[in-house]
Amino acid sequence: MNNTLGLEQSLIYIRNLANCPPSYLNDPGRKDFFEIVWLQNEFALHTIKDQEESGPGDWIYLIPPYRVHQLNKAGKNGVLLSFKRDFLEEEDKEFYLDIFKIFNIQGEFSCLPLSVDTAAELSKIYQLLEEEYLGQHHSFVILKALLKVFLLKLIRIKEHVFTSQDVNQKRVYEFMILLEENYLEERNAEYYADKLGISAKRLNQILKEKLDKTGMQLIHDRIILEAKRKIIHSENTLKEIAYELGFTDRPYFSRFFKKQTGQSPDDFQKLAKNHIESKFNTLVD
Known about the structure:
Layout: E1 12-16, H1 22-25, E2 33-42, H2 51-54, E3 57-63, E4 78-84, H3 93-102, E5 110-114, H4 116-134, H5 140-158, H6 167-182, H7 189-196, H8 200-211, H9 215-233, H10 238-244, H11 250-261, H12 265-278
Antiparallel strand pairs: 1-4, 2-3, 2-4, 3-5
């Protein structure tokens, strides 16, 4: 591994926010990465009640893969830590599911406010991770171990937000993992229910209870998310994007997109382009 390689050849990427190049932000390979954005002594990027009174602090944003975001780094202090799913130990299923949980894999991102003591603890681990990453003879094994320790700390920070994983919560995250791997080919809730060993009716009951959406709604959400990502980051035409997403023609894709989002893919493309041009490096929904 070489930290000078493009994202396609990299498994982990670490930068100070002030030195995060546009080449990273615009790299299509960025879609495959989990992103940890650690703002240090800054105001949060999202609306926080009474933020002005409480003053700046440390915030960690956990952005899951495939989310359509531009990193808002303009004038911010902090660090960026990105890694691919391949960098995780999938054999450790409990840890793997915890990662999907803290990154809010079914949503846009999650945010952790850090206390002074917690930020200091994380800083010690991050410094070791950064030193190894930047070292001339860095070790893949050491990087993976240090990243796991860092992530375990984040899991501990966030664990008070969640109740203990019940069997249905685990099924939700197993469903989301299956969805990431199969949504382009399998768009029927029955397929995922069968893989989980339950009925489609039971799967929908669980998903409605935990996420307030049915399996089909989540499948459609995932397709729209990928469509938005491709529209923003791909050079392909809308017709080509429609074909890549498994639609038989562009009109069918346009009807589906408008039904799910309330706007046509053409309108979304224009709005996204104008947003990026006028507000470089800000979050794009």
